[in-house]
Design brief:
The chain has two domains: 75 residues, no CATH class; 381 residues, Porin (Beta Barrel), CATH 2.40.160. The protein is built from five helices and 18 strands. The protein has a 16-stranded antiparallel barrel.
């Protein structure tokens, strides 16, 4: 197969300019059809004026072409080198399988712009009061609801997302890439019928420079601390197991990365980032165009994150294990004996993540973590830092994790079974605070085509409260989703 691909490229590069581009595109379509390249990569080639160069660079990066074969082909090419696709994000761009992209628009010959998106409709049913009706993270207290809303049904499309990738020219020997992504979880319009007039929310906004071994990034991206997420279309805008063992956030950051190939199958990745020190204490009911300094910002320094991972390819399956950490310093503010006081807060966390595709049909993924004051990561959500003069004034210790088994029966059918647990240190909590949160999840996905997916999901939520056993609640969440990706 490798010799066949190489021969095809050599033949294509020998034709004149008028036929070169057409033949390269035709070959790219064949490779996309048999799965060698993705629909997103095909769109990159289609939008480029230098199709043969983009295709050969892509196949070299995938290992289909050796360095010697690539050199022979690129030497025959009479066109300038085009930008290659961006390096893969270490933090998954979404908890569900990445959508195929089949449309692209070219801004100029040097800046191809690829639009993508996933339109998701969710229908949900709950048997208990939860913090969010359509994307529940934990259950409310038993008997706390007097409005009769403990059982409810709803439909929403607000987890839909849109974005674009920008493939820029070479800058200082590096490939320039950028990405912007939004969804519609930013709030509701202030009208009596505004329940489905959902407002846009910024997810990603970043620029990236990729050299052969080094990368630099600036913007809002997924945190490198605890970077994995379970697979779900029910929780597509907020990753599954938030507040149940899955720390996550997309945050402003400056990031550096180092890639080192240790062998033909093994790669080492080191990442270091200076991040926004926010600790998750922004008032959730407040809508404002301003930004007052909160606990993390009062620490007067950026947070720091680091991750080291090792990946190894075995029979075309990529195993990886990573360890990551987070630290930020902040100041809690409040009153003690009628006097204004500050209390130091050290937000820290360590996490282990793993991806273990034992067979072509079964993949095991997950994370475990431990830390303090991790509210920005939805760990001990809403109670990660408690008021001054309480036992949690310096931040609440919490730990947990999640694991997911994924079964791919056929290219169209997929089953995911997962469990998540978070358990804050009860000595840091007040009476009535959440002391334990568990979630069981099972979903089935059917891929009708490369653009259309149907998903059915069931979740069981179990939430405990400190010193209030009678308030412990259990609830069920059922979700049907239809997703159209482009």
């Amino acid at each position: 197969m490798r010799l066949f691909l190489t021969a095809c490229l050599l033949v294509a590069s020998a034709f004149a300019f008028d036929s070169d581009s057409d033949r390269a595109l035709e070959l790219a379509k064949i490779l996309a059809h048999n799965g060698t390249i993705s629909a997103t990569e095909l769109a990159t080639i289609e939008s480029s004026t230098n199709k043969i160069d983009v295709l050969t660079e892509l196949l070299r990066d995938k290992g289909v072409l050796s360095k010697e074969e690539y050199a022979r082909i690129s030497a025959d090419s009479m066109m300038s080198a085009a930008p290659r696709p961006a390096a893969a994000q270490t933090s998954p761009p979404s908890p569900a399988p990445p959508p195929a992209s089949s449309s692209a628009a070219e801004v100029t010959s040097s800046f191809p712009l690829q639009f993508y998106g996933t339109l998701v409709l969710n229908a949900v049913y709950n048997t208990a009061l939860t913090n969010i009706e359509d994307i529940p993270l934990f259950a409310g207290k038993q008997g706390s609801d007097s409005s009769g809303s403990d059982k409810n049904f709803a439909m929403t499309a607000r987890q839909s997302r849109l974005g674009f990738h920008l493939r820029g020219p070479e800058v200082a020997g590096a490939k320039l890439n950028a990405q912007v992504e939004i969804d519609f979880l930013g709030g509701k319009a202030a009208f009596g019928n505004g329940v489905n007039m959902d407002l846009p929310r910024l997810r990603l906004a970043l620029g990236r420079l990729d050299w052969r071994s080094w990368s630099f990034e600036a913007g809002q991206d997924w945190s490198i601390f605890a970077p994995l997420n379970p697979t779900s279309f029910a929780e597509y805008a907020i990753p599954t197991f938030s507040a149940s063992g899955n720390p996550w956030i997309r945050m402003p950051q400056f990031r550096g990365e180092y890639h080192r190939v240790l062998s033909e199958t093994t790669t080492l990745l080191g990442q270091l980032a200076a991040v926004d020190p926010n600790m998750g204490d922004f008032p959730t009911a407040q809508f404002t165009s301003g930004r007052a300094p909160l606990i993390g910002e009062r620490g007067r320094a950026p947070g720091v994150e680091a991750r080291l991972s090792l990946s190894s390819k075995v029979n075309d399956r990529q195993y990886s294990v990573g360890i990551s950490s987070h630290y930020a310093r902040g100041k809690n503010f409040g009153l003690a004996n009628n006097s204004a006081v500050f209390r130091g807060v050290d937000s820290w966390g360590v996490a282990l993540d793993y991806t273990l595709p034992f067979t072509s049909k079964f993949n095991l993924t997950g994370e475990v973590f431990d830390g303090r004051a991790l509210g920005i990561f939805s760990a001990a959500s809403g109670e990660a830092i408690l008021p001054v003069e309480t036992s949690g004034e310096h931040g609440v210790l919490t730990r947990g994790g999640w694991t997911q088994g994924q079964l791919n029966f056929t290219p169209k059918w997929q089953l995911n079974l997962a469990y998540g647990l978070e358990s804050p240190d009860v000595s840091n909590l007040r009476t009535g605070d959440r002391s334990k949160n568990q979630t069981y999840m099972a979903n089935v996905m059917y891929k009708l085509s490369k653009n259309v997916t149907f998903a059915w999901e069931y979740r069981r939520l179990l939430t405990n409260f400190k010193s209030q056993g009678a308030a412990n609640e259990q609830g069920d969440h059922a979700n049907i989703a239809v997703a159209y990706s482009f």
